[in-house]
Amino acid sequence: MGSYEDSDGYKYVYTLYYNSSAGKLIPVEGEDGKTRYGMVIFQGLLAFWGFLANLILIIALVSSKSARRLVITLYILSLTTIQLLMCVVNLPFAVYDDLHKWSLGQRFCEAWVLMDVTLSCISALVIVMMNIDRLMFVLDAKRYVKNMKVIALILMVIFPWLLGISLVIIIWVKGKQFFPDFPGMCVYALHKEYAMVSPFVMYFIPALIILGLTFAILVTVVLHPHHRQPPDGTHMFDEQGQPQLPYPFREHNSLFSVCLVNFFFLAMSFPYNCENAVMAFCETDNCMPPSDRPHIFYLLGISFLGLNPLLWLTYQEVRGAFLRIFENICKR
């Protein structure tokens, strides 16, 4: 993003898109000042809410002995940590970039862009691994509980981070397009081939896998309805003496929340990634979109940061962890 003033002193905003065919950066005029400041306010509020909500979710899960015993908690914590980092690192500098001329240098600009891309990629991969884990669970809960060792869990949680970082290095670092510095702007561009590959490798392929896994989970649950309800007399008690379902059924209750997270993550990220794919294949200036549309799609995608903690409230274990946090606060 950048800005300029016309002869009457009226300020406009333009977005720089990389035209891989022409081999140059094209400023596309659009967004008046009111629209821009509205988007800035939205990003600021989203950063504040996302930071607060995701932080509370992490604290609630870590402080709950009941939640810590569940495998799904590791994936929730991994995904929520990514959302928290994006609220702390990415969004504040996005607001800065919209309000001021970029004066932090090209290297910091590149680091900021790469951080944004890396965290977005890891988010998708964490959701993929979470769905693989849930499918393994619903296929054979007894074998899952018996064979899922600590080392295997750690590898499944760490793998998305390692793979995401590797993909960013291969596509975004090696595929970087070098260009003259643009004073006052943070600009990062990819070579045509890498720009075409990026949205497919980092979003569309994981999205197809998530859709397939979601379908497989739902079909398995429908075909095995006896897994939905625990047998009579199987309730246990948590650390506060409250009735609690046994471990397998507490894991099983997470499936609805996982499917909700799948749907909203894919739906909210889809428009922005489609726009990126279209722009990567664009061969003429005429196919460039209006400058406000990619920004709106970007805001739609990052809104998942603030929605993520609310979606997990549909899971009984997370609600219980939240309630215990607020009960402890009220007692003090």
Give the helix/strand layout:
Blueprint: E1 2-5, E2 11-19, E3 24-32, H1 33-63, H2 65-68, H3 71-99, H4 106-139, H5 141-147, H6 150-173, H7 192-223, E4 236-237, E5 243-244, H8 247-252, H9 255-281, H10 292-302, H11 304-312, H12 316-331
Antiparallel strand pairs: 1-2, 2-3, 4-5
Helix pairs in contact: 1-3, 1-11, 1-12, 3-4, 3-11, 4-5, 4-6, 4-7, 4-9, 6-7, 7-9, 9-10, 9-11
Labels describing this entry:
single chain, 332 residues, mainly alpha, Rhopdopsin 7-helix transmembrane proteins, three-stranded antiparallel beta sheet, two-stranded antiparallel ribbon, 12 helices, 5 strands, globular, disordered N terminus
Structure in a nutshell:
The chain is mainly alpha-helical and 332 residues long.
Fold and architecture overview:
The structure is a single chain. The model is unreliable at about 1-30 and about 230-245 (pLDDT under 50). The protein has about 325 residues and is mainly α. It is built from 12 helices and 5 strands. It is about 70% helix and about 10% strand. It is found in: Cell membrane.
CATH topology: Rhopdopsin 7-helix transmembrane proteins
Q: Name the CATH architecture.
A: Up-down Bundle
SSE pattern, N- to C-terminal: EEEHHHHHHHEEHHHHH
- Mean pLDDT, nearest integer? 79
The share of residues in helices is 55-70%
Strand order of the largest sheet: 1-2-3
Determine Rg (CA atoms, Å): 22 Å
Strand content: 5-15%
Number of strands: 5
